[in-house]
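A quick aside before the break. I want you to see a complete sequence-to-structure record at least once, exactly as it would be stored in a machine-readable document. Don't worry about memorizing anything.
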Amino acid sequence: RKGFMRAVIIANGIINGFRPVIFPEDIVIAVDGGYRYCLELKLRPHTLIGDMDSLSPEEIDAITRSGIPISRYPPRKDHTDMDLLLTLRHSSKLPIYLSIFGDLRS
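That is the input. The structure line, written in C-alpha cells, reads:
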C-alpha cells in the first residue's frame, strides 16, 4: 500500500450499510449528494463535484465555509454528475476505483 494512491468516489445512491475501506493516502471525491454519505461515514472529501441539485443551499454554504473545493456545473447539461467526473479523470494520472451501489435516482 505504501505509495499507492486511489481516488474513492462517494456518489448519491442507496448504500445500505456499505462501509468503504478508506486509507489515509486515498483521495475522497464526493459527487453531489454523495457528500451526505461522507458526513455519515465521517469522511472529509478532498473535493465535491456536480451540479449541486441534490444539496440544499444551506449545505452548500456549509461546505464552502469548510474550505472543501467545489467544482460546480450547471444543472441543465447533457451529462450526469458521474459522467462529468469520469470525463475529468481522463486528464489525470490518478487511478479511480469506482463501485456503484443502490438504485437509479433522477
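Two observations worth writing down. Residues 6 and 26 are 5 Å apart (CA to CA). The longest helix spans residues 57-66. We'll return to this after the break.
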